[in-house]
Each structure stands twice: as C-alpha cells, then as structure tokens.
Amino acid sequence: MNKRLPDIAILLSATMLGVAFFFMPWLNPGKDLTPPTAWLVLVLRISTGAEPLFRTEAFPLALLLLAGIGGIGAALIGVASDERPALRRMAGWTALLSGMIGLGYYLWFYNENGAALVRNMGQIGIGFWTALFAVLWLIAQALGMVTNRPDRARNATRRQNFLFALVLLTVALWVNANLQPEVFSQRSISNTFRNNLPLLVLVVGQTMVIIAGGIDISVGTVVSLSTAVMVKLINANSSPDDIRFAIMAVCGVGLAAGAFNGLCVAYLRLQPIVTTYATSFIFAGIALVILPKSGGDIPDALVRQYRTISNGIPFTVAITGLLVIFWLLLRGTRYAQRLYSTGGKSEAAYFTGVPVNRVRFSTYMWSGLFAALAGVAWTISTTSGNPSGGQTMTLDSIVAIVLGGTRLSGGQGGVIGSLLGVLMLDVFRNIVSFAGVDPLAQDLVKALIVVLALVGPGVIQLVQRRNA
C-alpha cells in the first residue's frame, strides 16, 4: 500500500482540481445557468465564433479547464506506470504544473485584493483547491521518497531543503493578507518584486558560494561599487549603446572583484570569512573614490522598463523567473554536482577527481557577477548612485539564504529556497509594520520572528536524527 500511496494522493488531488475548475460558482458566465451549463454555452460560443478566444475571458477559462483535465490525465498516467518511474515522475510534475497554472491565473486575474483571496479560500474556489492540490502533491512525493527510496529522500533533503521555507512563506502570506488586504493585488506584487529584486539577484551568487563551502562578506560593497561605476558611465541623456556599455562594464567590475576573492580563497587558501571581510573594505574604498557622495541620473527609459508591466506580468517578476530557470538548468549539470561535492566533503571530492579549487574560484566569480547585476538593479530602482547603498545587503542575503534552507557549512540548499527567503524577509517586515507594533520595538520583533524561523529547520533536523 505504501508504494501506491503517492500515486493515489496525486490522483485524488488532481481530481479535486478538475472538479473545482468545472464547478466553480464564481466563474458562471450566465447568472441563471448552472456552472456545467455555463461551460457548455461558453464552448458553443467559442466554436461558433460568437466568443473571440484570445480577446476575452474565454481563453483563460478554457486554459483552466484544460489544466484540470491535464492534471487528472497526468495522475492517471502516473498510476498506470508502475514499472516506468521516469514516466511517473513526469506525470507528477505535469499534474503539479496544471495546478500552478490555475493558482497563478487565480492570483493574477481574479483577485482585486487579499480579502477576496481569503474569502474564496474558504469556499470551493480555485484558490483553495489548487493550494490543497499542491500541498498534497508535495506530501505524496515526500511519502514516496521515504517509503520507496530512503537514499533519494536523504539526497533531495540535503540538496533542496526549501520545503520548510515554502510552508513558512505560505503562512506568513496568509497572515499578511489579513493585515494588508491588497497584498495580492497586481500593484502590490509589482512593488514587492521591484523593491526586492536587487537582493533576489544578489542571493543567487551568494548561495552558490555557500553551497561550495565558502562565504562572501564583500557582496554588499560590490553592489555599492557597481552603483558608483554605473552612475559615472551614464546620465539622464545616455543612449541605449551607452547603457549597454555601462552594464557590461559593471559586470566586468563584479567579475574582477569575484576573481580577486576567489584567488585569495581557492588558491592562496585564506579563510573565506576573513578574506572577504578584508576585501569588502577595499571595494568600499574604491566606491568612495569613484563616487564620493550620492548622486547621478538614470535615463527615464531605463526606469520605465524596470517598472513596466507587460501582459499582467511585471518586469521584475519576469527577471525573478529567469533566475529560477537559470538555477533549474544549472542544477542538472555536472558542475552542480561538483558544487555540492565540494561543499559537502571537499577532501573526498578532490580524491574522486573534482577540481575543488577551480569550483570554489568559479563560485566567487558567480558571486561577483550577480552582485554587479544586483548593483544595476539597485541603481535603477533608486534612480541614483550611492557609494554605501549596498552595505546592509550582505547580512540580509545571508539571513535569506539560511531561511531558505541552505546550510552555512556547505553541501546543502539551493537558489529557490534563497529566493523564498528574500520574500519571507519582506513579508515579515510588512507583518510587523501593519500589525501596529510600536516603532521603537519593530526591530526587536522582526529579529525575534527571523530567529524563530531559523530555529524551525534545526528542530526538524534534530527530530530526524533522533528517529534515525
């Protein structure tokens, strides 16, 4: 029975998803029609050309229905593929994707504010069912790994331990939605990602360094140095060619800073935390020489692009999606395997042929590059340069990474968890602000919330060790 439990859970959750798509009371196109009849009328109107498919709500409604049917079909394929594990995994991911399509559409197009989301979650709306579907799928996969492949469960936990971060973020968002009704509005989401994009970009490189067993204390000053270089190379009247040259120059500065850190840590064998702490003063000093005080102008076209919303998707959300895709593509490569091996057991990795020094050096190069890109985002977001603007981002990046499930000892974690950690930090700040906490005590309350969030994974690991 244990071997069939994951497939049964997937099938049940996908079936509920399909039922929710079909019988949603709030998607009734006709006030006097039952939902199934309304769907039939909608299909007839599309097929006869009376309802344009791509220019009204007909297309997304059809997409929802197809997602529900696809989830059920994928789950059925998974149940019927007992001897084909690859097909079962693909079916499970397809079912999850169908649920995420529905949930994403629900959040973006059918909620003017958070109050509507909370209200619909308590009914038979799509938000409740898709959330339940996703949770059941994750539980089913966890049960499948534990009951069928204990080694696979340990390996997945070691490398991508962001499930706790995802659960914590969900709870925090629910609390925030009750305190801030418009938290899920398009404008609120756009502002959130626009304000946090520099840190979201920064944690990608820092996570790779930490997974490989290092740490980079200088990332904040590299961000500051990047902003100083950028505002010196462009102004309000700069052409697109000038902007491209400035961004490339900033990336070159970040790569140079990362190469210097990597040389000291990987080849000179200096302690990472001490080395990058020292180099942070070097980069901060260079930033002050280039830009002694805050200032500079950014072209309006660049600012508009940063704040644009295309087809309902903010530009900053799209960039965050590219960060996720980058990590998903990188994670399946041999380089990622060497990354985890270097951070887990570097000596064993060395004796198995892993070029440990080169891997560590490359992580600092990645860190410098993403810190430079974070500086570009920070400059555009603030529309000016600041030679000390990124210094506070170092500790924020480390806290977000740890919240996302990455161990500072290395060999475990991932970028997706770190991105969730950044969003959690922002949600925690919003909760404290909108909860009416005394301004003098806000920093204390934020710190306590973060500490409690950090304690959670440790408690889980302690229980796992005792049960082992």
Order of strands across the widest beta sheet? 1-2
Total strand segments: 2
Query: Under the CATH scheme, which class of the largest domain?
Result: Mainly Alpha
Q: What is the helix tally?
A: 20
Number of domains: 2
The CATH topology of the largest domain turns out to be ABC transporter involved in vitamin B12 uptake, BtuC
Shape: globular
* Known CATH architecture of the largest domain: Orthogonal Bundle
How would you describe the oligomerization state of the chains in this entry? single chain
N to C succession of SSEs: HHHHHHHHHHHHHEEHHHHHHH
- What is the share of helical residues? over 70%
Helix/strand/pairing category: mainly alpha
Weakly predicted, low-confidence segments: 23-35, 112-131, 142-154, 156-160
Radius of gyration: 24 Å
Portion in beta strands: under 5%
The biggest sheet amounts to: 2 strands, antiparallel
Q: Estimate the mean pLDDT confidence.
A: 75
Helix-strand layout with pairing:
Blueprint: H1 5-23, H2 35-47, H3 58-80, H4 85-109, H5 114-121, H6 126-148, H7 150-159, H8 163-179, H9 186-211, H10 219-233, H11 240-267, H12 272-290, H13 300-307, E1 309-310, E2 313-314, H14 315-331, H15 334-344, H16 346-351, H17 356-382, H18 393-403, H19 415-434, H20 442-467
Antiparallel strand pairs: 1-2
Helix pairs in contact: 1-3, 1-4, 1-6, 3-4, 4-6, 6-7, 8-19, 9-14, 9-17, 9-18, 9-19, 10-11, 10-12, 10-17, 11-12, 11-17, 15-17, 18-19, 19-20
